Every structure is written in C-alpha cells, then in structure tokens.
C-alpha cells in the first residue's frame, strides 16, 4: 500500500463529498448491511490481522490481540447493528405555550465526511471502531492509520477496500507530512486518537476550517487504593491493566496512590501478581508484548534511569532485551513528583508508587495535575469512594478493577481537558458523528394572529402567565 500525497487526499475528499451530496444519507437497512459486511471481512482476515500485529510489534501475544483488538471491535459492531434503529428514530420534543398547535422533533442526520486518525498502540480496534461508528451514523470516511504499524495498516486497507468503494470509505497512509495535510482538510468532523501534544496540532489545524473534533488523548491515569483494602486483589487487577500490551494503553494505570502504611504490602503483592501472570518471563514470550520500537524502549529506559538517579527504589521483575525492545515490568518506590516518570504519560510496563496519609491528600494530588483519561478506585467504603469520585474530574472510572470500562458498549468513552474532547462508543459515537436537526411543523393556526385583534387580551394573558 503506497503512501498518498496531499493532492491525493483532496481528490478523495472531493470524491466522497460529491457522492454524499448526490446519494444522500443511507437508510437503516443499508447501514446495517455495510456493518455486517465489515464485520464479516474482519473475521475472514483474523489470521492476517494477528500476524500483522506480531510483525509490527516484533513480539505480541495473539491471545491478547484477539481479546483487546478483535473482541471489542466485533462487539462494538454488533451493538451498533442492534441499536441503530432506535438511535435513528426522530425524537419528539416539547412545543412552547404559544405554539401548541404545531409539532417539534429532532432528527439525527449524518455530518458528511469524517476524517479518522488512528494510533499505533491498538492499531486495529482504534481504527475500525471509529470507522464503523462513522458508517453507522450514515457518513463517509477517510481513515489514516499509524505509519508506525505498516503491516497492520496494510491489512486494514485491504479490509476497507474489500468492503467499501473509495467514495464511501478510504484508507490513506503516510508519515508526518501526510498527517499534517490530512488534519488540514475541510472534513465535517475529525476523530483523532493519540497523544495530547499531537491532539493539540490536530485541533489547531481543524479550527482553521471550523471542523469539529473528537480528541481521544491520554494522560496519567491514577489508581487510588483505600486504606486497608486487600492488596492481593488490587495487585492482580492493576497488574492486568498495567501489563496488557506492555502498558502501551492510553487508559493503563499510570501510577498508584496507596496509604503509607500499605505501601510495602502492595509492593509485595504486585511482585507476586506479576510473576503469576507471566511465569515464563518476558523475552521471547508468546504472552508478553514488546515495546513498539527502539525509540520508545530507550525512552522508557531513560525514565527509569532518571527516577533511580533521583532516589527511587527500582524493582525489576525480569530480564530485558534491547535488541527485541522487550522491557520487563518495573516497580518504582520512593517516587517524587519532580521525577520525569511523573511528568509525562509512561506508556510502558513501569509503575510508580506514591503514598498518602489521608484521602484528601490523594485527591489534592490528582487535582493539582491535568485531568486524566481514566481513574481507578479500589475500596469497599462507599463514603470514601464517593468522596474521591465527586472531588475529581476525569474520563471514565473503573471501581475495583482496571481498563474494563472501555469494554462497556453502552458507556461513552472520552476524556476531559488535556485527556480529550468529546466522547464516542455506542450511542455517544452515533451522536458525536451526527447533527441534531431540530424540526418544527406549524399547525393550521397562524401564530401571527395572536398579535392582531381580537386576540390582544388573550395574548397578554398568555404572556403574563409565561413571564410571572
């Protein structure tokens, strides 16, 4: 699959817009048919997808890829097929007092052409779920997958090409120059998933065309552990969230806030949980994912080294391989906020642990930083739990677990502040990529007559009733 030029991008956009204006929005039957065909092609290419992911990462668990890429994707498509009819129905709305003889309703209409920019960490699901959502909403779409996962991008391109004509959905590839040109196109909506830094550039480019955006970004998602809670239960579930895809997950637990009296118990339980989940080690393991490339591997090694030189206690839980960019899990104790590992999203299997004396102190720590994409709370005390949830602002929350809020099709997914703008998944995705068009149908009665004799006194009475 060859890279496109900026001129190619504009040509495809013009082709899709012309087709959209000519054909109009597809009906419910056509949208469901398109989604079923997309799902069938994904399932047909299952082996190709898993092989491409392994090629791009060098070492990636096929079982994990199926669970975190294919299952959410297929379930999301199934959910849209099942609920799309309800989402497309006009919604009746209230009619104001003066105009009761008329009717009002809202219809959701496609916005037109959606530009989708997908990241490298989950290059299948984070490309094709937005595409399926755009199709469900009746739009046409251009999809730019990440240049850092070329084998997977090629398979995605083959899937889309097999299901849709170019004027309905198209995959375009290229590096930074193509990405910048893509963001600058006058789409009707852009859905971007990636880093906060790149998200700001996408938003800036989109603003020049007044293109609305949905930005799914990242940030430092905290784990708050209630004092005295079962550390084994916490450690097992935090290890699952942190080691899935070797921590290369936008909603991975980024750091832990644990009561100072429970720190050592957590550290011990964490080490046992990690060994239990990966008893065979990491280098060459079919169940553990490598860091995407040498650049990100060296970045993580640098974060660990910076923390160690500033006094952090580093607990390494396995053997690394720089040649294969495999990084074994690392636990960091005695961490301070000034360390580089607490200044940026980690995106790897490195877990800093910080302590607090009161929950108010933990809440203040979270609130002093940019709003996270996810927040995790472990505890059975409802009063304390509600205090944390009411006093913080974040994207979604999982209680007594990690990651699993993203697998709930009936929950919106999105960040706030530095972690994102807008939400998608399920109904919220349909809403994000459609326009709410209000319609009022006037009845036989002419409202203008209320301003004319002999209705003056009636008009005054209604006015006084409304304004009292």
Q: Can you tell me the overall shape? A: globular
- Mean pLDDT equals 94
Beta strand count: 16
Helix fraction, binned, reads: 40-55%
Beta content: 15-25%
Please report the distance between the alpha carbons of the first and last residues: 68 Å
Radius of gyration: 25 Å
Number of helical regions: 15
Order of strands, main sheet, comes to 10-11-12-9-8-13-14
Main beta sheet: 7 strands, mixed
Unreliable stretches covering 5 or more consecutive residues: none
Class computed from helices, strands and strand pairing: alpha/beta
Could you outline the blueprint of secondary structure elements for this entry?
Elements: H1 6-23, H2 28-44, H3 46-57, H4 62-88, E1 91-93, E2 103-110, E3 113-117, H5 125-136, E4 140-144, H6 150-163, E5 169-171, H7 176-183, E6 189-193, H8 196-207, E7 213-216, E8 221-225, H9 231-243, E9 253-259, H10 263-277, H11 294-309, E10 313-316, E11 330-333, E12 350-356, H12 359-367, E13 374-378, H13 382-391, E14 396-399, E15 420-421, H14 426-432, E16 434-441, H15 456-467
Parallel strand pairs: 3-4, 3-6, 4-5, 6-7, 8-9, 8-13, 9-12, 11-12, 13-14
Antiparallel strand pairs: 1-2, 2-16, 7-15, 10-11
Helix pairs in contact: 2-4, 2-6, 3-4, 3-6, 4-5, 9-10
Describe the overall structure.
The protein is α/β, with parallel strands linked by helices and 468 residues long. The protein has 15 helices and 16 strands. It has helices at residues 6-23, 28-44, 46-57, 62-88, 125-136, 150-163, 176-183, 196-207, 231-243, 263-277, 294-309, 359-367, 382-391, 426-432, 456-467; strands at 91-93, 103-110, 113-117, 140-144, 169-171, 189-193, 213-216, 221-225, 253-259, 313-316, 330-333, 350-356, 374-378, 396-399, 420-421, 434-441. A seven-stranded mixed sheet has the order 10-11-12-9-8-13-14, with helices on both faces. A six-stranded mixed sheet has the order 5-4-3-6-7-15, with helices on both faces. Helix 3 crosses helix 4, helix 4 packs parallel to helix 5 (125-136) and helix 9 crosses helix 10 (263-277). The protein starts with 5 loop residues before the first helix and ends with a helix. The model has no long low-confidence stretch (mean pLDDT 94).
